[in-house]
Automatic annotation (TrEMBL):
It comes from Ramlibacter rhizophilus. This is DNA-3-methyladenine glycosylase II. Belongs to the alkylbase DNA glycosidase AlkA family. GO terms for molecular function: alkylated DNA binding; DNA-3-methyladenine glycosylase activity; DNA-7-methylguanine glycosylase activity. The keyword DNA repair applies.
C-alpha cells in the first residue's frame, strides 16, 4: 500500500479482529447482520503516530470523503510526511490544499511537539487509554475525539467508545433506534454488549453509514 506521495505505507491489522467479530456477532443482533457485509475488511493502522494524528486533525468536523480529499492534496506538499518536513511548508500552500487557518496552526504545533522530542511515543504502549488521552489533549487542536481516533487507528486499542463522534451516534440511531435521536446514555447502553471490543463495533457502525473505510 502507498500513501498519496507514492511512498510505501506499512499497514498493520489488529490481532484480535476475528475474535472480536465472533464476540460481537454472538452478543449483538445488529453486529451479526453488519459484519458479514464487509467481508475481510478490517481496521488498519498505518504504523506512524505523526501521520495518524495529522490525519485526525485534518478530518475534524468534515466528512470522511472531504477529509480524504484534503489529505490527498496536503500529503503532496512535504517531501515526506514527517514533522520536520511539515514545518518547512508555506502557509499559503497549506491553505491552497484546503486546510483552514486553525488546522494549519494545529498541524504545525503537532509537528513541533514531535520534532522537539516533547512527545515520547515509545511510552504509549505501556500506558492505559485514559493516560494516553490525557497526554495527547495537551497538544493544541487535539481534543478527546482526536485522541480516541489515535487510540483506535494507531495504538489499535480494542475497547474505545468515542461518544463525541457524530458518525457513531448517527449510526447507532440508524441501526438501533430507527433513526430517532440518540443520547450519549442511549449509546452507552447499546455499547454495553460490545465490550471489550467497542473499537471494532464502532468501525462497523461507521461502515454502515459510509462504505469507504475509515482510516487515519
Amino acid at each position: 500500500m502507498s500513501d498519496a506521495t507514492g511512498s510505501p505505507v506499512e499497514v498493520v491489522q489488529p490481532p484480535y479482529w476475528q475474535e472480536a467479530c465472533k464476540h460481537l456477532a454472538r452478543k449483538d443482533r445488529v453486529m451479526k447482520r453488519l459484519i458479514p457485509q464487509f467481508g475481510d475488511a478490517c481496521l488498519r493502522s498505518r504504523g506512524d503516530a505523526f501521520t495518524t494524528l495529522a490525519r485526525s486533525i485534518v478530518g475534524q468536523q468534515i466528512s470522511v470523503k472531504a477529509a480524504q480529499s484534503v489529505w490527498d492534496r496536503f500529503a503532496l506538499l512535504p517531501r515526506k510526511m514527517a514533522p520536520a518536513d511539515v514545518l518547512r511548508l508555506k502557509v499559503d500552500d497549506m491553505r491552497a490544499a484546503g486546510l483552514s487557518a486553525r488546522k494549519i496552526e494545529y498541524l504545525v504545533d503537532l509537528a513541533l511537539h514531535f520534532d522537539s522530542g516533547a512527545i515520547k511515543a515509545s511510552a504509549w504502549d505501556d500506558m492505559d487509554d485514559e493516560a494516553v488521552i490525557a497526554e495527547l489533549v495537551d497538544i493544541r487542536g487535539i481534543g478527546r475525539w482526536t485522541a480516541e481516533m489515535f487510540l483506535i487507528f494507531h495504538l489499535m486499542r480494542p475497547n474505545v467508545l468515542p461518544l463525541d463522534d457524530i458518525g457513531l451516534i448517527n449510526g447507532i440511531s440508524k441501526n438501533y433506534f430507527s433513526g430517532e435521536a440518540v443520547s450519549r446514555s442511549d449509546a452507552r447502553e447499546v455499547a454495553a454488549a460490545w465490550a471489550p471490543f467497542c473499537s471494532v463495533a464502532t468501525w462497523y457502525i461507521w461502515r454502515s453509514l459510509d462504505p469507504l473505510p475509515v482510516e487515519y
